[in-house]
Q: What sequence folds into this?
């Protein structure tokens, strides 16, 4: 799934990852180390967590 | 938490054409509840997972300790602390503690600035939405773990009972972190958002 992830920003400069397809779902994640988009192991963990929801278009900031 | 919710409100207004479904996970669930009360016009449906209208005493104590370790630059300590709530069994917690303590420096950079996290912890420490749950108009699903120490079952029930159009699903055998990796989780979220709105 990681190949399909797009990194961007929502309004106000909020970092955002988007992936999946279908109706949109805005995901507010749990407490992170920073407010920036996750990278490395943390990105892998977040994508693994949200993989079952890929029938929706996910926007996680 | 209202200030954080305002930032997210702006993002949703700019990023979507109309009300959107929102899934809030753990701390993100607190934020989602705040936003649902402050800006009901932005939200079509709401799923709150591993979160409730306020943290338990354990949760607040844990987060304050995390903030202290972060400020001291103790990356292993911050990482190891997660073990008590990511695994459902005693053995799992012991193994997770060992692995997380070992791995902390690998995924927390040496030059990490903990100020974002500390600000969020401070916001959640003061978060208590009990008096405003009735203002949430979005159809809501609360998903919680029966072994969650951040949010004991009575807090999940209090949250679902306080929101006019809400229901609760409990994964009885799950701790905080176990809720989101449960194989029922994705199915329950999708079923709720596709059928009940």
A:
């Amino acid at each position: 799934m990681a190949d399909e992830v797009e990194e961007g920003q929502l309004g106000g400069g909020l970092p955002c990852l988007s992936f999946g397809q279908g109706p949109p779902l805005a995901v507010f994640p749990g407490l992170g180390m920073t407010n920036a988009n996750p990278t490395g192991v943390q990105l892998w963990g977040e994508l693994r967590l949200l993989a079952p929801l890929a029938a929706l278009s996910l926007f996680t900031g | 938490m209202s200030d954080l919710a305002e930032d997210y409100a702006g993002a949703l207004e700019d990023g979507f054409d109309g009300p959107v479904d929102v899934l809030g996970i753990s701390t993100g669930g607190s934020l989602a509840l705040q936003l649902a009360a402050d800006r009901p016009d932005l939200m079509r449906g709401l799923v709150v997972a591993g979160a409730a209208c306020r943290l338990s005493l354990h949760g607040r104590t844990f987060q304050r300790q995390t903030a202290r370790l972060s400020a001291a630059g103790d990356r292993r300590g911050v990482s190891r602390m997660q073990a008590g709530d990511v695994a459902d069994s005693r053995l799992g917690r012991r193994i997770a503690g060992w692995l997380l303590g070992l791995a902390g420096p690998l995924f927390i950079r040496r030059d990490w600035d903990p100020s974002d996290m500390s600000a969020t912890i401070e916001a959640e420490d003061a978060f208590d939405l009990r008096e405003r749950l009735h203002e949430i108009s979005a159809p809501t699903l609360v998903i919680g773990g029966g072994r969650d120490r951040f949010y004991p079952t009575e807090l999940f029930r209090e949250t679902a009972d306080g929101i006019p159009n809400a229901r609760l699903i409990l994964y009885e055998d799950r701790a905080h972190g176990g809720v989101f990796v449960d194989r029922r989780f994705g199915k329950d979220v999708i079923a709720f958002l596709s059928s009940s709105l």
Q: What stands out?
A: The CA atoms of residues 17 and 28 of chain A lie 11 Å apart. Chain A has a mean pLDDT of 77. Chain A is about 20% helix and 35% strand.
